[in-house]
Amino acid sequence: MMTQRSSMDWMLKDLAAGVPQTRHVIVLSADGLCVAQYGAETDTADRLAAACAGLQSLAGAVAAELPRSEGRMRLVVIEMDGGFFYLMAAGDGSYLAVLADEGVDAGLMGAQMRNLVTRMGDHLSSPPRHDGQPA
């Protein structure tokens, strides 16, 4: 369970070090709060987390149109000028997001993200909050 913003930052370092061209790695709650980061200033991580919340919601709405999807988003990849953005469901109510430069190995990135989520799944869960406080 995620409890302190910086408590998982060190775990994200392995992902960034293992995939050349990785720029920022963050873990966010479903409502867009950054709970861990590596390679990003706090303001950048907060902006990315907020944007990711909207993106995962949009992806879930699109997924709901597919049979048997139950409206759950697993992975979103966006290719843009200068790089790639990855957003992966990481645990109950949490997501792993990566911003990488143009030369990144997409297959390696996906594999490393899946490995991190598998290894850290229980720690990457974020319970819903009530009145701004964890449940």
TrEMBL record:
Superkingdom assignment: Bacteria
Pfam families cross-referenced by the UniProt entry: Robl_LC7
Gene3D superfamilies xref list: Dynein light chain 2a, cytoplasmic
SMART domains the record matches: Robl_LC7
Domain spans labelled Roadblock/LAMTOR2: 9-100
PANTHER family from the UniProt entry: SERINE PROTEASE INHIBITOR RV3364C
Protein name (record): Dynein regulation protein LC7
Record organism: Streptomyces subrutilus
